[in-house]
Write a structure and sequence with these properties.
Two copies of one chain form a homodimer.
Chain A lengths: L5 H11 L6 H13 L2 H17 L1 E2 L6 E2 L5 H4 L4 E8 L2 H10 L4 E5 L18 H6 L6 E4 L5 H14 L5 E4 L15 H9 L2 E2 L1
Parallel strand pairs in A: 3-4, 3-5, 5-6
Antiparallel strand pairs in A: 1-2, 6-7
């Protein structure tokens, strides 16, 4: 796409930086945006700025929220003594969509990966240990069944075991190497039911 | 994606309105945007607003430009007596990428479609006829080989014939029903070489 305009080149290269957007999609999106009425472009741009400005981590579980704590942590009908540990918000969202899990979550925002230089201090792990000083019955580790996810699960279970709190891992109904967010709800539930104590 | 935040819901629904973006991609992009540093989000939002504000149609050919006329029309080394008529800027871009076409363009911004209620007055057709009052040797019709594209080609050729200007149509090297912007450059060039007088 070369119309000799820095404005278009700039827009395309900004769009290309978004996940899953190649150069063809970026070009198509850019031309679409230029063709929109001005007020629609303002709405689109504002929606990004507003979301970025107002959404932050829940003080309790590190889910996203625009309040102090997220709607899940705020919900007193949920079982606050059961904490499911997930790698990211998309994985939390995947379990929420099943509608069957009634406990709360802890979002690590990553997984331990020696390859990528991500250690236990780079994810929300000490924050999890801090939460366990409260009244907790069970920690369900629902990290991905990738190498990093399994490493993280083993690491967490070794940290928690001495505290006497029950630690479980979702069953390997989740295909090895699979990514939680793309798995169907039935498989996700089967994995939850079949969880085994570590 | 339900974190009970109107800001996130709003961002996702704005992203979903972009072409080729489904709900899953919109969610992924939204979470990515929230995770970016503030200055990157500002850059992304600004790139949209700046492009929308500064880019408009070339007064000559209706390509996009941030000046008075586009870089192609401004280029005096190109053959201004040969005009290729395309449906949209992406199609112009596809022919530009071949680097072999040395004439200029006319972007219709659409094609005649009785089904969609798009008539000759809804595309930049009278602007094309206006241009033909100048010094023009040939009009190459490179609308898509879809029903609408063919209808538009026939309509234009009937309009131009009486003026005595040569009217050609790119060869049907382009697969029937195909969309110009996705076709490889060799096929595009073969279609250009094999063009026939209408």
């Amino acid at each position: 796409m070369d119309i000799g305009s820095g404005y278009l080149d700039n827009l395309i290269s900004e769009l290309e930086r978004l996940p899953g957007i190649g150069s063809k999609s970026a070009q198509r999106m850019a031309l679409h945006i230029i063709g929109l009425p001005m007020e629609r472009v303002v709405k689109l741009a504002d929606s990004m700025l507003n979301a970025k400005e107002n959404i932050h981590y829940c003080h309790e579980c590190f889910n996203l929220t625009d309040g102090e704590v997220c709607t899940i942590c705020k919900n007193m009908e949920r079982d606050h003594k059961t904490i499911m540990v997930v790698e990211n918000v998309r994985d939390l969202s995947a379990y929420e969509k099943t509608g069957k899990y009634k406990g709360v979550y802890h979002v690590l925002h990553g997984a331990i990966s020696p390859m990528l230089g991500i250690g236990p201090n780079d994810i929300k792990l000490k924050e999890l240990i801090e939460r366990l000083k409260g009244d907790v019955d069970e920690v369900i580790i629902a990290t991905n069944s990738s190498l990093e996810g399994e490493t993280t699960a083993m690491y967490i279970s070794k940290l928690i075991k001495p505290t006497g709190i029950k630690v479980t891992r979702i069953a390997s109904g989740v295909p090895v190497g699979g990514d939680l967010e793309y798995i169907d709800e039935v498989t996700l539930l089967r994995a939850l039911d079949g969880r085994i104590e570590l």
